[in-house]
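Handoff note, outgoing to incoming analyst
You'll be picking up this chain. Sequence as last confirmed:
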Amino acid sequence: MQDFFNWQSVIGTIIGIIGTVFAWFAWRKSKEVENFLEKEKERLNEKIKIILKQGENEYALPDVRRQDVIRSEIQGRLGVIPMKVKGKRYSIEFMNSSGFYRQIDLVSEGSNESGNSSLIINCTEAEFAQFKFETPKTQAKRSTKKINEK
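Most recent structure output, in case you need it:
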């Protein structure tokens, strides 16, 4: 009977060692996944520039996070630009092309490090002219005078 209990303790020890090895590999894999998810979160939060471009003319829309670079979000941002003809909706032919969808895919799958940090919407002269671009207001200058303290 004593031999039986010795074998049980040896088998139990071996199972414990194997369990420890598996637990270590599982912990290591969980750290890899955690690091990957953190990098992916950072990548998805990168800011992307959206630029309307017609020849030399450019208009930069407010930056958007990479995870929000989808067709509807871009259209919504374009929709808030004032139009020269009130009540009219904008029309940009490039946004219905495969090139536009390819750009969205490249930007959403890429990273700023790989050079995918902007989405350029090519316009014709008439398409660019339909918008009423406002010049940004200048900020009030802060006084640089120091107030004398007593």
